[in-house]
Amino acid sequence: MAEAGGISLLPLDIIIKILSHLLQFKDVVRTSAVARSWRHLWTLVPSLRLCCHRDRLGDTLDFSTSSDVCSWVKRVNRLISSSRVPLVDFELTLTVKARNFGAQLSPLLLSLFELLLQKGGGLETLYLHFPSPDVAINLPYFHALKVLKLNFCHVILPTDFRGFNHLTTLKMHAVQISNDDLNLLIRQSCNLTTLLVHGCGNSTNPLSINISFPLMRHLDFIIDEYVEKVLVIAAPCLEEARFSEAWEDDYNLMLGWLILELVSSVPMVSSLELSLNVRQYFSLVTLPTFPRLRCLKFPLYINIKDKRTYDALIWLLRSMPFLEELHLLLFAYSSRAGILQRELLVKKHDDLSCLNQTLKTVRICSELLGVVMTSITVVKFFMLNAKVLKLMKIEYCRGSEIEPRMVEELEESELTSSDAEVIIQGLTATDYFFGG
After folding, report:
1. Could you tell me if 199 and 246 are in contact, meaning their C-beta atoms sit under 8 angstroms apart?
2. F-box domain spans which residues (predicted)?
3. Which one of 218, 232, 255, 434 is separated from 406 by 20 to 30 angstroms, measured CA to CA?
4. Which bin fits 184, alpha (ψ -120 to 50), beta or left (φ > 0)?
5. Cα–Cα distance between 56 and 340 in angstroms, integer?
6. What residues contact residue 374 under an 8 Å CB cut-off, 6+ apart?
7. Which residues on adjacent β-strands are paired with residue 127?
C-alpha cells in the first residue's frame, strides 16, 4: 500500500483531530486505510458515531429480527473494546424493522455503558436513537457529559443519581421517563443552556415541571395531553423559546391554556415560536409585556365561521412593543375567509408600538397563494400599518399560481413605509414550514 504523501507527515494529534471531525465511522475507517502507518489510527479517534444501516460492521444484516439487532450491538461493544483512547463523543442509531427487542437489547446496552466507563468515563456527547421506546436505558454517571440526546427509549436513573454537573444540552424525544426522574435529571443539571422535551409523558405518568436555570438560553417544549404543568420559574438568560401543542388540528382548551401560561412565564425571551392556533385560545389569559422580544413566529388560522383572527393578531402585537421581525404561517379554511376578514384587517392602527417604531421585517408563508383574498388582507394590513417596514416577504409552495389580480391589488395598496420592499417568492415543500 502506498503512503499518503505529505499528509502522512502531519503531526499525529492533527491527523486524529481531522478524523474526529468526520461524521461517519465508515469514513474514519476508510481514511485510516490511506496509508500503512494510519491502519490503526481509528482506534485513537475519540469519536464513535454509528448507524446500523450505514455502518454494517461485518456481515450484512437486514435487521428484521431482534437477533440481528443484538448481533450488531455486540459488534459495537467490540469496537469500543478495541479503542485505545477514552471516547469523548458517542452516537448510536438503530433504525430497524424489528420490534419488541428491548428486553434483549437492554443488557447489551448496560455492558456498552460499562465499557465506556472503563475507558475513563470522560464521555462529553451521548446520542442514542432507537425505533421504539421499549429499550430500557439505565443511565450511568458520566462525569464530563455536556450533551445528552435521547430518542425513543425508556430512561431509568439510578437511585443515587448525582446529576451531570457539566451538562449544557439535554434533548429528549419520545422518551419514557418518570416525572420524578425527569425533574431530578433537570434539577441536577444546573448548567443547562438548552432543553428540548417532546412527547415524554404518558397516561400513567403525566409531567409536571418547574424550570429554573440561571444559564438557560434555549427552551423547546411540546405540550400534549400527558402534560399537567410546565412553568419557567427563573431563567434570566433565556433567549429563544419554542412551544407547540401536539395536535394543532384538535381544539383542546386545556392544552392551549397550558401553552399560554408557559408563554406568560418567559417575558425575557428575544425570540419566540408558537405552533398554536392562537385564534382559539387568545382570550384565555392576559399576556405580559415582552420587552426583549425581537422575533415572533406563529401560525395564523383564518376560518370563515370565526372572526377572531384579527383580535388574536392585535392581542399578540400589543404585548410585544419592540418586535422587529414577524413570521406568519397562514392557513385558510376557505377562499371566502379573506373576504370575511377584509374590512377588519385592512384599517389604520396607531396604538401599537411595534407597528409604529420597530417592526422592519414581515414574512408571510401561505401554502396556496392562489387563495388570494385570504393572504392579501394580512399582507395589506402590515403594508398599511408598519411605519418602519423594510421587507415584506410573501412565500408560497411552488406549484401554486400567482393570480394577476393579486399582484394588481398589491400594487394599488397603500404602503406607509417609503423604504419597504415587497418580495413574492416560491418555496419548495421542505422550505415551507419556517425554513430557509
Report:
1. yes
2. 7-41
3. 434
4. alpha
5. 59
6. 302, 330, 332, 334, 335, 337, 338, 341, 366
7. 91, 149
